[in-house]
Amino acid sequence: MTPDREKLPSGATAATRRLRLDQPQPRRRVRLLPEWDPEAFGRLSERIARFLGTGRFIVWMTGVIIVWLGWNITAPAHLRWDPYPFIFLTLVLSLQASYAAPLILLAQNRQDDRDRVNLEQDRKQNERSIADTEYLTREIAALRTGLGEVATRDWIRSELQDLMKELEDRRRSDGRVVFPAERAHGRDVDDR
After folding, report:
1. Whole-angstrom distance, CA of residue 36 vs CA of residue 31
2. Tell me, what DSSP letter sits at residue 27?
3. Rounded to an integer, what is the distance from CA 3 to the centroid of its chain?
4. What is the CA radius of gyration of the chain?
5. Residue 26 Cα to chain centre, angstroms
6. How far is CA 117 from the centre of its chain?
7. Pick the residue with more confidence: 97 or 186?
8. Using an 8 Å Cβ cutoff, are 107 and 101 in contact?
9. Does 21 have pLDDT greater than 90?
10. 37-40: long-range contacts (C-beta < 8 A, 24 or more apart)?
């Protein structure tokens, strides 16, 4: 048991008693408005906005308006709830539009946020791809430079064939064999 924590009586919790007097209590937030999950509200607004943008919504809305107008024109006068100027219908449509516009904007903002995150991820992926491509380009250039300095089998074969041809030509011309190394040092066969 630690000295700064004393044993709580049965049924008491840390929330009901202050454990330390030298530390301030955590601030309690008093909320007058109810709390909601912004993600859940955003998902709901996207679903509503997605529905408002479909042909099904247009068909249902047209059907409701036709039934509304038909009932309020053909029904007996005492059963009509919205007579001819159809003020209540105008109010309902205005209310629907006033809620639909912010929900659509909220859904668009969420989509913009997702697009921004995807764009940032694409940008980072492109930067990695460019860096990888530049690295591979440098490596290929280094390999080409290195291969340019390496004697290949074909090059050695062609050099040996040239030397053999040169020796054959010299042998045919005077019957003696003179090695190129001896000529390079200024010595001749006769100097031996």
Report:
1. 12
2. P
3. 52
4. 46
5. 39
6. 6
7. 97
8. no
9. no
10. none
